[in-house]
Write a structure and sequence with these properties.
Number of domains of chain B: 1
Shape of chain B: rod-shaped
Number of helices of chain B: 7
Distance between the termini of chain B: 54 Å
Strand content of chain A: under 5%
Structural class of chain B: mainly alpha
Largest sheet of chain B: none
Distance between the termini of chain A: 64 Å
Helix content of chain B: over 70%
Number of strands of chain A: 0
Largest sheet of chain A: none
Oligomer: heterodimer
Number of helices of chain A: 8
Helix content of chain A: over 70%
Radius of gyration of chain B: 21 Å
Number of strands of chain B: 0
Largest interface: A-B, 46 and 30 residues
Order of helices and strands of chain A: HHHHHHHH
Chain lengths: 180, 115
């Protein structure tokens, strides 16, 4: 027997809560995935509109589990369409104000900016799945289980993916440092 | 701290969360709030076919203005997004496509809202 339908006002209130709790997550994911603020805004907007359409069903099927992986999965699918429709690749050059927009202290901005920039460029070079896993782990602070749900993988496969992604990125950054 | 752990610290700093612009939050909240208030009844039963006749445009257009200012704004945003992806052959084409987009999107939103 299916669960009784919630009143629309309650659903809307719960969706508002979800939105407030995860706007920054969806925006951060979109931004690091695409590499510029303009399209990240568009992607964030579309993600929440899509989520609104399917919120009730997602709640039913989530069985009480957090909905963040579901939201990020929507953003992931929309980002994939974005690249397919426009035949684009992720930008290797992130908007100049990225590092400034993020909550770094002044000292790190001065000393580590180049290093952080090299890392961001390295992230953009990674294969899609590895890049996404790192964004989810480090920008959004998702644990293995959440990432696994967002990516439709097992926890074990996700752990391996994260490990390989980090090692590959480390290698890319090292090579860039040596070349500089 | 091991080299790998140090690298992860750097990675965490490089991928620090990015705050969404204030106007995005405001825009989205307005859109979502108004989306829940669409004048579904008035806009019910739109069919693209009937929209081909300009004499049929007045009623739904009035309904949209009266009941769904922000809902229509959402429709227009989406339609505009689609329009950006295409380059029409001439002005008439562009007008027809824009109209079809707007009505098509309105229908989709209403179906979703009713679901």
């Amino acid at each position: 027997m299916s669960a009784p339908t919630k009143p629309k006002a309650q659903l809307d209130a719960e969706f508002s809560e979800l939105y407030r709790a995860h706007l920054r997550d969806v925006y951060s994911y979109s931004y690091y995935r695409i590499g510029n603020h303009h399209d990240a805004e568009d992607l964030t907007e579309q993600t929440f509109l899509q989520a609104y359409r399917h919120f009730e069903r997602a709640q039913r099927e989530s069985d009480g589990r957090p909905l963040r992986p579901w939201l990020i999965r929507i953003a992931h699918n929309l980002a994939a369409n974005y690249y397919r429709d426009r035949s684009r690749k992720p930008q290797t050059h992130i908007d100049d104000d990225t590092v400034l927009a993020a909550p770094h202290d002044t000292e790190s901005l001065v000393e580590g900016r180049e290093e952080l920039q090299r890392i961001l460029e390295g992230v953009a070079e990674l294969p899609d799945d590895r890049r996404e896993a790192l964004i989810m782990r480090f920008a959004l602070g998702m644990d293995n289980r959440e990432i696994a749900r967002a990516m439709g993988r097992t926890d074990g496969a996700t752990k391996v993916l994260l490990h390989r992604a980090t090692r590959q990125l480390e290698q890319i950054v090292k090579e860039r440092e040596e070349a500089a | 701290m091991s080299e790998s752990a140090e690298f992860e610290v750097l990675l965490r700093r490089a991928l620090a969360p990015v705050e969404p612009p204030a106007d995005l939050s405001q825009r989205l909240e307005t859109t979502l709030a108004n989306l829940t208030e669409l004048a579904a009844a008035e806009l019910e039963g739109w069919e693209l076919e009937t929209m081909r006749d300009p004499r049929n445009w007045a009623r739904p257009a009035a309904a949209a203005v009266v009941g769904t200012t922000a809902g229509v704004a959402l429709v227009l945003v989406r339609a505009r997004r689609r329009a950006k992806r295409r380059r029409p052959d001439n002005a008439l084409d562009a007008a027809e496509r824009a109209l079809r987009d707007v009505f098509g999107e309105a229908g989709r939103i209403l179906r979703d809202v009713r679901r």
